[in-house]
Every structure is written in structure tokens, then in C-alpha cells.
Protein 1
Amino acid sequence: MNRFLLNNLLKKMKSNLLEGKSIGNLKIGALLALGSQLEAVFYYLGHELGLLFDVPKISDLTKIPEELAKIIKKYNLGEIDITGHSQEQISQEHLSVKLRNCLTCKDLLSSKISAEGPFCSFEAGLLAALVEKMSDLQCFAQEEKCSLQTDQSYCEFIIIYQKD
Ligand SMILES: [Zn+2]
């Protein structure tokens, strides 16, 4: 799933609708951006699940990584390392996280199965929902590198705050 493309297409659809223009071709583009149906469904499931978790409201975005790590631990979803480049970037634009012992791929890792593209879309949806709930900002998340691709002990995700 290409969340960045999807996001841009959705924004374009919104403005087209407001201007009374057609969104036909944009819908087809969005479908392609969704990519594999299973991946999109897993993202959706993870997102729905994340919305059910008990999370505190956090107005200071720099405190989110810390809290996110606690929640992931509490629900036994693995362990999180925060890898944002600077405190400023974490707070304003996006949040990068490394997730160790990711539920989706940890068992596959030892079996030496490798993945072509992002694999853990369930966790991506879950992380997006958790950060959304904490920050009250709309977010989307994408797995950038899966441990199945890199052979590392963690998967890397990016969570983007959507501010317009
Ligand atoms: Zn992964």
C-alpha cells in the first residue's frame, strides 16, 4: 500500500468534490495505491484494534514516543525504539519507530522467509490509530523496512501527522 500516494489522491478527491468536479479516475488511482487487498485489510484491522486501546491524550507531541512504547509493551505487541532524527522532527512532522519482536513477522523471521515489500501492515494501522488517539491528529503509518527484508531484529515504521 502506498499511503503517501493514497493520501494525496484522497485530498484531491476532497477538493474535487467541493468544486463539483468528477473523481472517477482518482478512485481508480486510489485503488491502485491501496495495493494488495490483504495488506489494506490488515491495515484497517490494526487501525480498528488500535482505536479500542486505552491511551491517554497527549498534547505535547514530543511525549508521544515514550507513551507509545509503554502501550506497545503493555499489550505485548513487541518493544519500541524511537529513532526520530531530532526532537523537533518527531514533534512536528512524523515519528519513526523501530518495533522489535513484531507479532506479524517474528515467527517468520526464524524460518528464513523473506518479504519483497512492506509486510506488517497490521502493525502500521495499529500504530497510526494509537498516535491518532493520543494526539487528536489524523495520522497514517507505513512500514518502511520489514525485518523480513533487512534481516534485522526490528521492523521500521514511519507515522506521519496529517495536518491539513
Ligand atoms: Zn515487518
Protein 2
Amino acid sequence: MTVVIVGAGLAGASAAEALRERGYDGEVVVFGVEEHLPYERPPLSKAVLLGDKEVDSAYVHDDAWWREHDVDIRPGVEVQSIDLAARRVVTSAGEQAYDWLVLATGSEPRHLRMADDAPTPVHYLRTVEDSLALKNALRAGNRVAIVGAGWIGLEVAAAARAAGAEVTVHETADLPLLAVLGPEVAQHFADLHRSHGVDLRLGSAVTADDLAEADLVVVGIGAAPRTVLAEAAGLEVDDGVLVDELLRTSDDHVLAIGDIASEQHPVLGRRVRVEHWDNAIGQGKAAAATIIGAAEPYDRVPYFFTDQYDLGMEYWGHVGPDGYDRVVTRGDFTGAFRAWWVRDDTVVAAMQANDWDASDEMRASVGQAPPSE
Ligand SMILES: Cc1cc2nc3c(=O)[nH]c(=O)nc-3n(C[C@H](O)[C@H](O)[C@H](O)COP(=O)(O)OP(=O)(O)OC[C@H]3O[C@@H](n4cnc5c(N)ncnc54)[C@H](O)[C@@H]3O)c2cc1C
């Protein structure tokens, strides 16, 4: 039997590793466009960008590990099309038949045309090469314009300040991270960045003049799932590749995992597509279980972490600004802090900042009654 995995990112690597862990002894072939073995992206906007860690630390496993586990990783090979009826993919290096196909093609940064057309050098951040290029460009006194106050924009802002750059962040919403956290907690992120000298310009769109005034521009306005292959093959796609709780697509022999998968989530009771590290690992494992016939529904509550300046934070849940009726908080955001988003007297999301002993308790609080105010 042959399992073919399209995408040698974290989700694809996790699926391959889990197949071997679960005793699957057939062939595993992983195709990846990038000229790298699978690596984790979170350090690219944190430790690697700050110069605290080398790129090598981001690799999931070294070459020897993949060889010992008989996983055939093909870096630099693109899957160009899928023939669902023949169960075969066409790649830039030839054809490959499969019994199971796992799509793990991830996502790519959304482009801002105005920035691409501007004379100022523009950076996006997705790959090792992007991270190293940006790290080289961040210098003391440089004027850095960041477009988008999402997770990546804010992490880059922190790294740019650490490098001594003058940083301006442009965001159309009234607060950074507003759509994820809601105003109560988002305000703390605005205060954090302003206290570190970031010129945070909220509630207005960036202009061509803003970009022209900068020495370099970083665009962090979100990512789009790479669904082109799936769509061309005729799989059901709507924002992401539609999958059930076992990660099965509309074709019986094809699974989709990681950033591209729009899962009918058994606990949340609706479709969610999660662009996070933990989801890529967990769905990779669940896909392996589906392939070996263990059928373990992927029901983890979405989880995310970030590091900015001295703040380390974890968040469990999937809510958005309209999904809760109040927020209960404890502590001080610049010290140890906890927050619970509550709807109908049930915790729908929870976070801790700089309070690492609280992780298990906060994760477990989702779905429970909130702490008293
Ligand atoms: C800079 C950065 C920082 C992040 N920080 C955090 C964080 O702090 N916390 C967190 O939870 N999440 C974070 N994330 C998100 C997290 O990294 C992603 O959710 C995760 O990488 C998704 O894994 P994936 O395998 O689905 O996709 P990807 O990591 O995007 O991997 C997909 C791979 O598939 C390849 N591919 C695509 N199409 C083809 C094809 N046709 N043929 C062959 N190969 C193909 C791509 O080249 C890519 O290498 C961050 C992301 C970035 C970019």
C-alpha cells in the first residue's frame, strides 16, 4: 500500500511520522515544493527572526530520522495534478500512484498590490528564506512599515524593535487582533506595542505615501489556503478543502489536513479551518489513524501561542468578536494574566499570558462554567 502526502510542511510531516508510530509498514512518499525537509514556521517570526536560534532548530527531524523511518521525502518536487479516478498524481518529477492521498498544501500570504507596486522593498513571511531575508533587512534606525496588526505583523514589530528599527504598524481595524480576541483583550496588545515604542496607526488603511516613507515594508494581512490542486481535481472546496471529523474529503481515498482543511468539528458543531501549529500536528495524527482504520475523530479545541517582547501567551478556543457575551479576567496583562471568554455562562475560549502553570487548567476550562467575577 502507498500513502502519498502532498506538502512537506508540519501537517504532512506529522501524518508521515504518525503512520510509522502506529505501525503502518507500507510506502510513505511526501512531496514538497520547498527545497527543505519539513520544518516548523513559528520560530520564523520569533527566535529565528530575533537571531536567538538558528534555522536548524526549526526542522521537525533530521535527514537520518526520516531515512531510518523509511519515509521517502522528495524536497523540490511539486505535485501538479491529481487523477482521482486513476488514484495517481502527476508531479514535476513524474507520476506516482497512491492508495491514500493526504493533501497538506498549507497556505500562502495574501498579497497587497499597493505594496508590491511600491518602490520600497517589500517582505512577506512564510518560508525560511523569507525569515532570513527579513532578519538581514532589520537594522537599527531603519524605518519599517508593517501592514496588518495580526499575529505575524505584531511578532515582526517586536523583532524589529529588538533590532532597533523605527516601527509603524498600519491596521484598518480599530485594534490589533480585534477579530480574534475582541476589544477587551485586544486593547492590551495595543498598549503592549505602544509601550515598546511602536507607532500603531489604527482604524485607517495604509497609503502609498506611508509605504514610500519607509525603508522597508512587511505585509502581514493574512494567508489563503492553497486549494488549487484540490479544486482542479474536483474535490469539494469552500474556503478550505471540506473534510469530516476523520479528515475525509469528498473522495473516499483522499484526506486533507492542516491549514487547508475546513473540518466539520465535532465539538464546536460547525466548520472550522484553523491556521495553527497545534492543528497541523493533531490533524496529521488523526489522518494517520483514519488510514490505518482506527477512526479517531479530530476533536481538539483550536490552540494557539505567541511570543512578543517579554509576553508569552496561549489561547484555546475559536470565537471571534461576536461569539461571546463577556470576558472574565484575572491579573495584570504585563505580568501574569488569565482571560475567559464566556457565552451563556459557559467558557468558549481561554488564554493565559506569562502564567505557564495555568496552561492545563485554562485548556480544561473551555466548555465549563466560568470562574466567579
Ligand atoms: C511566520 C509564521 C509564524 C507562525 N507562528 C505560529 C505560532 O506562533 N503559533 C501557531 O499556532 N501557528 C503559527 N503559525 C502557523 C503554522 O505555522 C501553520 O498553521 C502550519 O505551518 C500549517 O502547517 P501545514 O503543513 O498545513 O502548512 P504549511 O506549513 O504551509 O506547509 C505546506 C507545504 O506544502 C507545500 N506545497 C504546497 N503545494 C504543494 C504542491 N502542489 N506540491 C508539493 N508541495 C506543496 C508548501 O510549499 C509547504 O511547504 C505561523 C506561521 C507562519 C508563516
